Amino acid sequence: MLTVLVTGGTGTLGRHVVSGLREAGIQPRVLTRREGKAADHVTGDLATGAGLTAAVSGADTVIHCATHVRYRRVDIAGTERLLAVAREHGVGHFVYISIVGIDDNPFSYYRTKLRAEELIAASGVPYTILRATQFHELILSVVAGLAKPPLAPVPKGFKSQPIDTEAVAARLVTLAAGEPVGRARDIGGPRVDTLADLLQVYCATRSKSRMLLPIGVPGKTGRAFRAGANLLGPDGETLGGTFDEFLARRSAG
Ligand SMILES: NC(=O)c1ccc[n+]([C@@H]2O[C@H](COP(=O)([O-])OP(=O)(O)OC[C@H]3O[C@@H](n4cnc5c(N)ncnc54)[C@H](OP(=O)(O)O)[C@@H]3O)[C@@H](O)[C@H]2O)c1
Questions:
Q1: What's the rounded Cα separation, in Å, for the pair 89 and 98?
Q2: pLDDT digits (tens, 9 = 90+) for 96-108
Q3: Is the CB of residue 43 below 6 angstroms from any atom belonging to ligand 1?
C-alpha cells in the first residue's frame, strides 16, 4: 500500500487531503508540530528540521500543504529541508499545492510560493505542482474581517474565483496517486466575483447591513489584483461549488 506523508495535514486543506487519501485506500501520515497520540501523526517542524527524517522515512509520496506566516522559515527554508530529506530517502513523488497567478503578482506571500515552486522543480525529486485559486475559507475570513465596521472598506476592483477546499484536496489525492506531471492544470472555482459582491453575499447570509467604502490599493500588488492576476486563465479548469453555496452549507451547520 502507498504511504503518503501530508505536511499541513491538520490544516484547512490538509484535513480534506488526509480523509481523501483514506477513502482512496491510501495510508496517510501527517506531519504536525503538535505532540499527539494519533497513530498516523508524526511530530516535526519544518522551521527547524526536527522530526523530518522520521516523517519522510518509508513514505512513497509527499503532499506538501504546510504553510505559516513566518513563511521564509517554513515555506521556503522548510520546503528546502523537506526536499533534501525526500531526495535522501528516495521519495518518488513530491506534490505541492500552489496558487494561481503567482508569476504576475508581487504580493510577498505569492513570491514565496513561486520560490518554493522553483526549489521543487530544481530539487531532482519527481514532482507535481497544482495551482489553485483562493479557498472559500480564506474569502470568508477576508469578508468577515471587512464587514466588522459599519462602513466596510473594500479594495476597489479586486476579484476572486474562490474554490471548495474539498475539490482541491480531491484533485491532490488523484494527482498523488498518479505519476509526477510537473505543472498540473490550474484549478479554480466556478465563478468570478468582485470582492464587493462576495462581501454583500456574506452580509446577506448573516443578516448584516453594511455600506461599502471602495478603497484604492496602491502599488504593483494592487494593480495585479485589479488586473485579475489571481483568476484562472483560459486553460484552467473550474471545479466545485460557488461561495454562496459554501456559505449556505456553513449556515445549515
Ligand atoms: N488559502 C487559500 O486560499 C489557498 C489557495 C491556494 C493554495 N493555498 C495553499 O494551500 C496550502 C494550505 O493552506 P491552508 O489554508 O490549508 O493552511 P492552514 O490551514 O493555515 O494550515 C497550515 C498547516 O501548516 C502546518 N504548519 C505550519 N507551520 C509548520 C511547521 N513549522 N512545521 C510543520 N507544519 C507546519 C500546520 O500544522 P500544525 O499546526 O499541526 O503544526 C497546519 O496544518 C498552503 O500551501 C497555501 O499556500 C491556499
A1: 24
A2: 999 999 998 999 9
A3: no
